[in-house]
Write a structure and sequence with these properties.
321 residues, alpha/beta, Rossmann fold, six-stranded parallel β-sheet, 16% strand, globular, NAD(P)-bd_dom_sf, GDP_fucose/colitose_synth, EC 1.1.1.271, isomerase, Epimerase_deHydtase
């Protein structure tokens, strides 16, 4: 029996590296990866040549230009251009070279700014997007519609998953550009090392957020990719393509901070700066479709934060004090 050749685009990122760790466990899989230096995904000719030469069976499209609010606001042209080019090049080259199965990884920012909670798949394109990351969101929506359109016209099996807030090993711990969990973890760790008496968290602590460990995201992605087509279609019609991935459970920022304090072992006080903005009151995915497909998240927040902190302490990521 020949091995299944699986290309993971974005294998050095948080999700891509988790997919590599998981898929490598199956001896029937042959994992294909390329660094940016080896393959520029914005270069259409290079991507076409790569697919023509490598006889790929499955594609996990986890490559993307990503960043926080500041980066999205500062570089909107780069965010929409680079993400559209990556998706266009990979999806079309996959189709042109006979790849029947592909999984596109999107983002919860595809949903309208004031969408009803929890967010259902049907809410896509029903209202206005959040202005700060609209270019990125539009690129991700285009990726969903590319998969949907190629399925309809060419009869391939290209699926899409939309994750909630992700965290875990290989996350970005940059002091200015990281998301809430890595930013908070770094702050608590440095406070512990420095012997600080308090850690200040922005806002009231009341907003609610959902967090999914990246190993769960990888497991859900592989589960969705390998579902029988009739099972997938039965749970995604009439929408045709995308499925939410999350825990279906959220917590307040205060609860997250208290759990983080315990995991890191910080013994000082927790202070909330209520002069700072809270942001959206709640962001929670409706994951009933995914649950009906037979997958439920298994990594608890405490377990996931502990795993991430262990990685943070032992990794080679640069930590400045």
């Amino acid at each position: 029996m020949s091995k299944q050749r699986i290309y993971i685009a974005g294998h050095r990122g948080m999700v891509g590296s988790a997919l590599v760790r998981l898929l490598e466990k199956d001896p029937n899989n042959e994992i294909i990866t390329r660094t940016h230096a080896e393959l520029d995904l914005i270069n259409q000719q290079a991507v076409n040549t790569f697919f023509a030469e490598n006889k790929i069976d499955q594609v996990y499209l986890a490559a993307a230009k990503v960043g926080g609010i500041h980066a999205n606001n500062t570089y909107p042209a780069e965010f929409i251009y680079e993400n559209l080019m990556i998706e266009n090049n990979i999806i079309h080259a996959a189709y042109s070279n006979g790849v029947k199965k592909l999984l596109f990884l999107g983002s919860s920012c595809i949903y309208p700014r004031n969408v009803e909670q929890p967010m259902k798949e049907e809410a896509l394109l029903t209202a206005t997007l959040e202005p700060t990351n609209e270019p990125y969101a539009i690129a991700k929506i285009a990726g969903i519609k590319l998969c949907e359109s190629y399925n309809r016209q060419y009869g391939v099996d290209y699926r899409s998953v939309m994750p909630t807030n992700l965290y875990g090993p290989n996350d970005n711990f940059h002091p200015e550009n990281s998301h809430v969990i890595p930013a908070m973890m770094r702050r608590f760790h440095e406070a512990k090392i420095n012997g600080d008496k308090e850690v200040v968290v922005w806002g009231t602590g009341k907003p609610m957020r959902e967090f999914l460990h990246v190993d769960d995201m990888a497991a859900a992605s592989v589960h969705v990719m390998n579902l029988p087509l009739e099972t997938y279609q039965a749970n995604t019609q009439p929408m045709l393509s995308h499925v939410n991935v999350g825990t279906g459970v959220d917590c307040t920022i205060r609860e997250l901070a208290e759990t983080m304090k315990e995991v890191v072992g910080f013994e000082g006080e927790l202070v909330f700066d209520e002069t700072k903005p809270d942001g959206t009151p709640r962001k929670l995915m409706d994951v009933s479709r995914l649950n009906e497909m037979g997958w439920i998240a298994s990594v608890s927040l405490v377990e996931g934060l502990s795993d991430t902190y262990t990685w943070y302490l032992t990794s080679k990521c640069e930590i400045r004090y």
